[in-house]
Amino acid sequence: MPIKSSILILFLATSSQSQDEVVITFFPSSGFLIRNEPFLLSCTVINAKSIRFRCNGEWMDESRQLSMEGVNKDGTLYLQSSINISKSEDDIEKRCDCYGIGKGEITVKSERQAVISPAYMKKHFEHNPPSSIRIKEGSQFALPCLPPLSHPVPIIEWTRNGQVISLDNYRIMGSDGSLLFSSIRLQDGGAYVCTATNVAASRSTPPSSIYVYVDGGWSEWTEWNGQCSVQCHQLDRMIKLRGHQVIPTLSRRRWCNNPAPLNGGLPCTGDDEESSLCPLLCSIDGGWSEWGKWSLCSSQCTTNRTRTCSNPYPLNGGNHCIGDSDDSISCSTGICSSRWYVSDGIVVVSLFAVPILLSILLSLCILLLCRQKSIRTHSYCGDIASYKSGIIVEGAPFMHSPLPSMTMMTNKNGYARYESGGGYSISRGGESRQALLDGCSTTSSARKAFLTTNSSVTQEDTYATVYECVRGDIYEGEGVLPARVDREGGRLSIHNNGTHLLIGEESLESPTTIILSTHSPDDDLPMKDEYEIPVSCAISTNCSSQSCIPRFPFILSFTHCMQSIDEWNIYLYSNTNYGWDRYEIESDSNDSTSPIFTHFDSHNSSIIHCAIPHYGKFLLCARPKKLNPMLRMRVAVFTQIDRRDTFSLRVNIVRDGSGKTDRQENERLIIESIMLVVMDGGPLCICLEDIAPSFSSTHNYMEMDLSTQSSYSFEIESIDTERTFNARLVLLQKGSFFSNPLILSVSLDHNYDELVTTEESQVSLDFRLPYAVKERIVSLLDPPSERDWMSLARCLGISSFVHFGRTLSSPTTVLLTLWEARREDPCHLAHALRLSGRPQIAHIVDNIR
User: Fold this and answer.
1) Interaxial angle between packed helices 786-795 and 771-781, expressed in degrees from 0 to 180 and rounded to the nearest 10
2) Could you tell me the CATH number of the domain that includes residue 186?
3) Does residue 17 sit in helix, strand or coil?
4) DSSP secondary-structure letter at 127?
5) Domain for residue 245, yes or no?
6) Which family does it belong to (predicted)?
7) How many domains does the chain have?
């Protein structure tokens, strides 16, 4: 055979053999088995007539395979086959091979083995972060997060308030998934969630609330401040009258704002004010303190008490107190003889004392029964019968309007006065409303008041005599405001003395008539000693029925006359029909025994707010801490023209907040309510200057003792009755270095009309915050999460509310009502909510402005 022919035959045989070779071109890939998601195992083979899969030494069912033939670009034939591998109950790892079977049963096995392992993630984390934790700003801190047992290893991700955290120099992630803070910042507070994710599942931890707090730090002390110049003889006289408290002192202050405590941080420790006696040159004699309490009776039948020479201490060579510092007396007569005395002070009581004790107990029981009967007989305000828009109470008529707004108006002779009158019977008929009311009232028309509403009712329909009835006691009030209040609450305001009563929403179970009234302090004042003075008017609150007990405390706002509350010891007196109770109040704390919470308004220093849980009578009194503290007074000027050629100018001065103008009969008001700051003590000089020609006054100068006088009149004579009277009144306190003169210009002609005053009372629904927003805040901050409402109280500057709030069923409700009483802009509340860690609620409050 020729050589060329042999080569051609060999080439054709080799070519035929390569075209029949079985080659695996696509190997099966590895992956994970997920529950309810089968894994697709695929393999592609050239020149194969069939493909088989074998996993963990077992052939897979060929009927489950899905095969497809095709032709490559080079013309070769290929076979592609795939099979679904499902997660079995044994959850074991599968190692699978692909076999290609060609002509002549030639079998080729894949070079790479596919590993298919089950993927999973257990339900519970191995280590959850704490549900909440308080961390001091600047501390190093780690939030642990050990994910559940998983395959494959999950990816860890942290979120704060729903936003993914970007890691930086302050926050890094540990190898175990923990979030590490190198120095935690105030803005790092929030709700943190750790999320673990793999192909099988994604699981998250419960939110972990981090509260970053800041402990308070003191600022630097201010310079010493005070007035040390004093005349020794005057100081000696005042010490004898009032005690050592009048010795002038220097004081300095510091503030807990470097930094201020935030988010429940500890307040500063120590005092925020220091005082020191002035370096006086006066020689001051010592004075005895009050005697202490008597000791228990000793076995020798004596009792002792002591006093100290500290009122004041002797200064600069002053004399020591004369007398004994100890006192003892016999505490029993006869019972210490050997016949009656038993060791350890036990005394044998004779049998005749038993019937005496029984008689005393019987008398007390009879007295209590009589008192209960008296209360049941008199503690009511009468039977109510409605007529049109008003209410008439038998023996005590009330007036109310069903509308949300009404105004009380007074007659020209001054404040409306209210006196008891006759009864009104609903059996009367055929008479007008005016006639019925005239028939049940003994007051003159000049002393009646009426309520006007924005409805279409006439003045005759709303004209009535209003009574103030407090637990069965009827007495006159200088300002009386009755109002019909329902579950929506309301604000009752008597503007002439700055008195307000705020009734929050849902405070009353059902509509009822609330009566707010103000009075001058009674002659029988409740003060404990002669140095206390009333610094507000007396305020009474009451309702028209015995079943109108409030669910939440009302907020009663006083206007007081103290120029600086730091100069006074302040006391709140409360009378709820069982006698006066006295509670000392301070600007940054409250008496823990008091059922009434008090708050000094930081935006208006002349107002004190009280959260009152009951109706009653209330009065603010104060005792000066030092000599001659400052008071705010109100000045009004009246005139009384008897004839064309003579008239009077009367200057009337009352303490701010008292509400009195002391208008006399036939007087006209020409200057209304001008503020004057004076010292408590020292005469007030009043000068009448620059009197117009054709006029003269018998006296142009006088001095008033403000502790005993409240007004003075200048008698004016006129030569020409057609001329206009002009003059200048100058008021200045004698010996005061702190008060500026008050200069009033007076102009009056014969056609003078009375000044139109703005004295009125009103009821409104003027709430800054919608009730739906309040409900949302209350639901998030109220107990059992005490920390939230406490933090809001501190951020609002009412830290002393915390103790009182723990006694309430809904402290957040009362806290928001107190905020409403301060009349602040909602932006202040939103800022406080952000500081307390509630930015979402703050955003809602921002949107209502």
Assistant:
1) 120
2) 2.60.40.10
3) helix
4) B
5) no
6) Belongs to the unc-5 family.
7) 5
Q: Letter for the amino acid at 453?
A: T
Assign residue 800 the CATH number of its domain.
1.10.533.10
Instruction: Tell whether the model's pLDDT for residue 75 goes beyond 70.
Output: yes
Structure tokens at 560: 């007081």
Separation CA 190–CA 128 (nearest Å): 17
Q: Is the pLDDT of residue 454 over 70?
A: no
Mind listing the pLDDT tens digit for each residue in 342-386?
333 333 344 445 567 777 777 777 666 655 544 333 333 333 223
Average pLDDT, the chain: 75
Containing 654, the helix (H) or strand (E) segment is strand 646-655
Name the band, by pLDDT with cuts 50, 70 and 90, for residue 12.
very low
Instruction: Write the CA distances from 488 to 402, 500, 690, 768, integer angstroms.
Output: 13, 17, 56, 13
Does residue 388 surpass a pLDDT of 90? Answer: no
The CATH number of whichever domain residue 586 belongs to comes to 2.60.220.30
* Whether pLDDT at 128 is above 70: yes
CB-CB contact of 99 with 53 (8 Å): yes
Report the alpha-carbon angle 665-667-670, nearest 5. 155
Query: Residue 388 and residue 704: Cα distance in Å, rounded?
Result: 51
Task: Give the model's pLDDT for residue 193.
Answer: 94
Residues 194/198/202/205 CA torsion (nearest 10 deg): -20
For 552, phi then psi, to 5°, come to -125, 150
Domain that includes residue 749, residue range: 630-762
For residues 456 and 588, membership in a common domain is answered with yes
% helix, strand, coil for the chain, step of 5: 15, 35, 45
Say if residue 468 is in the same domain as residue 604: yes
Q: Are residues 532 and 395 in the same domain?
A: yes
Based on the domain organization, do 66 and 144 belong to the same domain?
A: no
Q: What is the pLDDT of residues 625-681, one digit of tens each?
A: 877 788 888 888 888 766 667 888 888 888 887 766 667 777 888 887 788 888 877
* Structure confidence at residue 750 (pLDDT): 58
pLDDT above 70: residue 443: no
Assign 458 a pLDDT band (cuts: 50, 70, 90). very low
CA–CA separation, 209 and 187 (whole Å):
13
Q: What are the tokens at 565?
A: 């509350």
Residue 330 within any structural domain of the chain:
no
114 and 126 housed in the same domain = no
Query: Is the residue at 319 inside a domain?
Result: no
Nearest 5°: the CA angle 761, 766, 768 is 145
Same domain, 710 and 796: no
Cα separation, 489 vs 504, whole angstroms:
5
Q: What CATH number is associated with residue 745?
A: 2.60.40.2660
- Alpha-carbon gap, residue 436 to 461, rounded angstroms: 11
Greater confidence (698 vs 483) lies with: 483
Same structural domain, 539 and 463: yes
For Cα atoms 119, 123, 126, give the angle at the middle one, nearest 5 degrees: 100
Residues 447 and 552 in one domain: yes
For 42, what's the count of Cα atoms within 13 Å in the CB-facing half-sphere?
Answer: 8
Q: Which of 155, 178, 213 is the last residue of a domain?
A: 213
Final residue before a domain boundary, out of 213, 229, 254:
213
Task: Evaluate whether residue 204 is within a structural domain.
Answer: yes
- Given the structure tokens 């076995």, which residue do they identify? 299
pTM of the model: 0.48
Q: What is the DSSP string of 382-442?
A: --EEEETTEEEETTS-B---SSS-EEEE--TTSS----------TT--S--HHHHHHHT--
**Average pLDDT score over residue span 412-434:** 31
Residue pointed to by tokens 């009077």: 648
Helix and strand numbers (H, E) in the chain are: 11, 56
Q: What pLDDT digit, counting tens, does each position of 703-739 carry?
A: 888 777 778 888 888 877 667 888 888 888 876 655 6
Q: Which two tokens stand for residue 636?
A: 């009004």
Lowest mean pLDDT among 339-348, 569-578, 665-674, 772-781: 339-348
| The pair of three-digit structure tokens given for residue 72, joined into one six-digit string | 């490559």
Residues linked to residue 204 through DSSP beta bridges, in sequence order: 195
